[in-house]
């Protein structure tokens, strides 16, 4: 026992201090559990432990309150927040059996001395940082969120939903955008824009470091950008103790084969089948990035979640799209339409027999929010890391189904016949950049969104809606071409 009566611990503002690291260390005094509900309120339960390791069933619930705007965040007993500094609090001893507790108010502290009996329970409201930021000024009414891809198809739809979220008032949303003009427009929506690109790795890392929640909706295959984001997240964890939430956009392309449109596979993946997903080769599309993200979760500095949509369809709508900030159109079906228009005939890869899942843009974007809400409300039961893959699908189609519908719509406009023909190798290279990329539209990718549905996701649009969406896509492309 040291001369201050605290053994290996020093004393600072009534908080336990590990002298060797000079960091507040609540874990050596207490058993700690933090849960956050869907509205962003953090609940802290602490079980104090004696030197003899007999538990004292003192429980505290600490709930964030919007009336505390800014304060100094510290680890320690309740990691409390106040507008006053620790220097205004008399130092008191903090040991296993003599722990100082404070009820925090805006301009005063009320001090309590721990003498409760073994069966006593004390509930008190203490403002805590949901991100557990140590020794820095933070806005306690806001949860910092960083989003990439805000001007894109998926990212724009996700941002629309974050801005319409019931707890949007507790969000501090930052978005990385390339266009200064779109950045100015985003400001009018209450978003903090940062002009930059995924190639600016230092900037990307710095933005990720500042966020408790990261939505990556820009690129499924940019490994350097992903490593930069994870670098920032890891630094945040190392300096604050926070374990950020990272929601990444991958795709069901990770499941693809080399069918070239000639056959349908019987292999169907479930997002609840961890071993099946882990059997995917590291050379599969998106897989190198996905594995890097899962490793971050395994190392413990982030909780990671990967959303894997199938063929996303539908012309996106909403204020961000109306303001021409975000892109309204998907990639796969419009690319097939454009190639068919260029050759003046609907087309397909091989015989079009391969099968893919499809999902409506609004249903896909809803999954991100359902997942986000589930993470906040049920952090222990919402799968993450190797159990954090979430497919987005609501039905399947063959590539022939799409090509046939494209051909019919083009024929209605006097372009070609209503029966698709097969792309030649030369055409695949001409219209898609390479034979391999062209054959992507002839691969199989079959999956079931069992985990996604288990957390409450309820997609509404089906294959019939997907096929019906093709005509307005064709007409939108024709209109744009005529406007040039």
UniProtKB/TrEMBL annotation:
GO MF terms listed in the record are: aldehyde dehydrogenase (NAD+) activity
What InterPro entries does the annotation carry?
A: Epimerase_deHydtase (IPR001509), NAD(P)-bd_dom_sf (IPR036291), NAD(P)-dependent_oxidoreduct (IPR051783)
GO cellular component, as recorded: cytoplasm
Q: Which Pfam families match?
A: Epimerase
Span of domain NAD-dependent epimerase/dehydratase? 145-374
List the protein's name. Answer: Uncharacterized protein C2A9.02
**Natural source organism:** Grifola frondosa
Lineage of producing organism: Eukaryota, Fungi, Dikarya, Basidiomycota, Agaricomycotina
